[in-house]
Amino acid sequence: MTVKYIESCKLPTPFGIFDMHGFEDGESDKEHVVLTMGDFDGEEPVLARVHSECLTGDGLFSLRCDCGAQLQAALHKIAQQGRGAIFYLRQEGRGIGLLNKIRAYHLQDAGADTVEANEALGFGADLRRYDMLKPMMAHFGIQSLRIMTNNPRKIEALREIGIDVTERLPHETGRNPHNAKYLETKKGKLGHMLDSE
Ligand SMILES: Nc1nc2c(ncn2[C@@H]2O[C@H](COP(=O)(O)OP(=O)(O)OP(=O)(O)O)[C@@H](O)[C@H]2O)c(=O)[nH]1
Ligand SMILES: [Zn+2]
């Protein structure tokens, strides 16, 4: 696993001023980003969001998913508490990449759900990996995470690679008429813990 820390800078946001740290992932050739606030001295678990890239939701205001709202809610919560980290992993489209995600959305426009569309394109439902997190956490001296997520498989995947997840904080936000079916599929086929209707 070759993950190399490159550089840091300030990132002022509407939620507060974060520090942004850039990492180069030799395995995937991707550039990951970590936004942090506060210091991570001591053993207190760190409030964290492990967020996979969604250009459409995070940057282009798409209502097809809940990613943008989840990212904003995580920034807001960390700023409120004054301590935490967002690991922004460049694995667009659950790992299939942006252009394949557009292909998958095209199939979804014709009626497929998010899992069926991936499978029709010859991909598994979720190709993400999380092993790059360990060296990134080690860089900051972060030992354990209180993680904002609704995805039990993400927590399992983190624990399988030896990351200490001490707590799951429900992270339900951004429901709208355009993503109702998408969220239903996440709950029904991918096991997401989504309670509100
Ligand atoms: N292939 C594919 N990827 C999608 C689709 N919609 C969103 N994504 C990607 O899914 C990733 C986010 O994963 P989600 O399954 O929405 O949520 P999660 O991160 O596993 O779980 P939470 O922590 O609860 O948000 C991002 O990389 C998005 O680009 C879709 O319809 N097809
Ligand atoms: Zn999204």
Automatic annotation (TrEMBL):
Task: State its cofactor.
Answer: Zn(2+)
Q: EC number(s) per UniProt?
A: 3.5.4.25
Where does the GTP cyclohydrolase II domain lie?
Answer: 7-170
Transcription as a keyword of this entry, yes or no, is no
Superkingdom as given in the UniProt entry: Bacteria
GO cellular component terms listed in the entry, alphabetical order: cytosol
Reaction(s) this enzyme catalyzes, per UniProt:
GTP + 4 H2O = 2,5-diamino-6-hydroxy-4-(5-phosphoribosylamino)-pyrimidine + formate + 2 phosphate + 3 H(+)
State the active site.
D126, R128
Q: Do you know which InterPro entries this protein is assigned to?
A: GTP_cyclohydro_II, RibA, RibA-like_sf
GO process annotations (BP): riboflavin biosynthetic process
Report the Gene3D superfamilies cross-referenced here. GTP cyclohydrolase II
- Which pathway features in its UniProt record? Cofactor biosynthesis; riboflavin biosynthesis; 5-amino-6-(D-ribitylamino)uracil from GTP: step 1/4
Report whether DNA repair shows up as a keyword of the record.
no
HAMAP family, A to Z: RibA (MF_00179)
Q: Which family does it belong to?
A: Belongs to the GTP cyclohydrolase II family.
What does the protein in this record do? Catalyzes the conversion of GTP to 2,5-diamino-6-ribosylamino-4(3H)-pyrimidinone 5'-phosphate (DARP), formate and pyrophosphate.
This protein's name: GTP cyclohydrolase-2
